[in-house]
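Quick check before the chapter quiz. The format below is the same one you will see on the exam, so make sure you can read both the input and the output lines.
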Amino acid sequence: MEETILLPHKIKSKGIVYQDKYKKIEKIQADFQGFKKEYFVSDYGRKAAVVIVRDNKILLVRQYRLLINGLSYEIPGGKINEKEPPEKAAMRECLEETGMKCSGLKRLIEFDPDLEYSRNHTYVFVAKATQGMLKKEKRSVWVSIKRCREMVFSGKISDSLTVISVLAYLTKNIKRKERNRS
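Here is the expected output.
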């Protein structure tokens, strides 16, 4: 497969090759000058998540993940339903996954985890106000901000959404503290 800095003169769908309720895979052909490139793009839809902070702790959800064959520590989040605003999806996912109701969401970061083989535009918010009880099965845990940072750099937190979100939160807090000192 050729790498290029050229833009294709034509991009066309060759159709959906697989679809289920979680994703669809589309075959796409890009025609460049002198060559063609074929892509198989997985479309997972848009995703929303929230970093919940209380008493210098971040709320994480533990979930089984096949590719690591173990429990992953993640911020609450998931797929945005059709016509659902990202903020509402983040609040809904938080409630479903943790039993906590959050409000006062502020945009933290927005990103695309991949620019070539998957569509999964992601919105991440931060919230400090929460109410409710954590679910009884101990799926949700409060982890100190310092420990979250250590978990990211030791690989204990390896989910890209959570890594990006925790580091974005830490970066914004560092910048806020620097501005306050000036």
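If your answer matched, good. The chain has a mean pLDDT of 92.
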